[in-house]
Amino acid sequence: MNLIEYRRNFLTLHGASEKYARGVIRAGLNKQRDGFIQAIRKHGVQSLTVAARAIILDNPLRPYYNRLYSRIGVEYARLTYKDVQDQLNLEVKAGITFYSAQWRRQMIEFMLSEGGVRISEVDGNTLNKIQLLLASAQEQGLTQDETSRYMILALKNDINPSNPFNKVRVQRIARTETTTAANRGLLIASDSLTITTLKKWVYTKDNRTRPDHVRVGTREPIPLDQPYLVGGEEMQQPGDINASAKQCVNCRCFQRLVPVQ
Questions:
Q1: pLDDT number for residue 221
Q2: CB pairs under 8 A, 24+ apart, for 112-118?
Q3: pTM score, whole prediction
Q4: Which of 48, 123, 178, 229 could be stapled to 56 by a disulfide with Cβ–Cβ 3.0 to 4.6 Å?
Q5: Euclidean distance between CA atoms 73 and 179, whole angstroms
Q6: What are the C-alpha distances in Å from 198 to residues 224, 242, 255?
Q7: Angstrom distance (rounded) from CA 212 to CA 199
Q8: What are 223's strand-pairing partners?
Q9: Residue 259 bridge partners (DSSP)
Q10: Under the phi-then-psi rule, with left for phi > 0, alpha for psi from -120 to 50, and beta for the rest, what region is 232?
């Protein structure tokens, strides 16, 4: 397939993957939120900050992230593997089923080794939101019982329906993690190829794309182990888990492997 076809296939898959990711992230954040509500009902708000930290240390988001990365990463690894075979006019091997199991293991290993950075960011934002709600209750002069009811209503999205506790960030997190998982899937697919490939950054052509991403997308393909230089940062892929939020959040860029012929 040519680049136009690849872009179309990638973006179609990205839309479906992002929808799946929204459901997974929403379920994970709601489980975390339900832990806070249970703690308030059991102990009140006196020790909520301590209880919230304990809930987060239990890492309720981890299995949801593992599920998201293993599924989305494998889907993009399959797309990449087929694309490279097609560029070389080769028939896709039946062994892709074997590789799928291997790719799934690699994606989970990636999450276990490096995914904690992203989960910690989400957890930190959650604690900040809890602190802001407690500060709001204090400013209103609420009693402890009133604060408990206020916190539960806020966590259940009944205080301000136009700005629910989790809804806005579900979209942002789902898009960001879909981009990261998809581009990681591309890189693990490269390990299963018997030919040498380069990687090419491909940006989304609209006015929402970061200028830094447009610039890197106009450059020639580079070796797989070489980082892209993006706005002064080194990134192994779009959505690089170790890059700054300003280069990753809501990013819709992707890569394509280019065979060396």
A1: 95
A2: 112/66, 114/241, 114/242, 115/62, 115/65, 115/66, 115/69, 115/241, 117/241, 117/242, 118/65, 118/176, 118/177, 118/180, 118/241
A3: 0.85
A4: 123
A5: 10
A6: 6, 21, 10
A7: 17
A8: 198
A9: 197
A10: left
Q: How far is CA 36 from CA 25, 145, 242, 254, in A?
A: 17, 15, 29, 36
CA atoms of 254 and 238, how far apart (whole Å): 6
- 112-138 average pLDDT score: 89
Residue 200 sits at φ, ψ, to 5 deg, of: -130, 125
The letter for the amino acid at 10 is F
Q: Helices in 44-115 by DSSP H: which ranges? A: 48-57, 62-87, 96-114
At 51, list the tokens: 């209880």
Identity of the amino acid at 32 = Q
64, 28 Cβ separation under 8 angstroms = yes
Work out the angle at residue 81's Cα, subtended by the Cα atoms of residues 170 and 111, and round it to the nearest 5 degrees. 40
- In this predicted model, what pLDDT tens digit does every residue of 47-94 receive, in sequence order? 888 888 888 888 889 999 999 999 999 999 999 998 998 888 876 555
**Structure tokens of 96?**
């892709």
